[in-house]
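Batch manifest, entry 17 of 40.
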Amino acid sequence: MSTDETLTALSFTVSGRIARPCEQVYEAVADPEQLSRYFTTGGARGRLEPGADVTWDFADFPGRFPVTVVEADPPRRLVIEWGGEATAGEGGTTRTEFAFEPVDDGARTLVTITESSWRPTPDGARAAFGNCEGWTSMLNALKAWLEHGVNLRDGFYR
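Output type: structure tokens
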């Protein structure tokens, strides 16, 4: 970014490789039953597909969070919007994109998560950094769950 450009929103990207095919990794994110086993410590309701009534609950941030599915292109891409503080998105939401890319002839999947729409303010930076930590934790938990059947978040928050 040059010095004459204005920063209008913050975003971040995290990624990791999981030793499972794209279809299996995508399903572990889109299916609420699986998502509840390794990520949404308070449970997930609704499949990640357009028009679904989706909510996520977390023990570390109690309360159900509504999730809007903007786009679903199995097994390659999911785009969601959900609420946050200090957001630049309309209606107080952020936009999160999950990209699933086959690697090693489809034996592994590169998962890339990009979240955007945070205000370029100290509060926006705090919220973005907090969610960046959360999505990094989600990727670690997804890998442990799919590759080893281990729930890393079990007992971590309470």
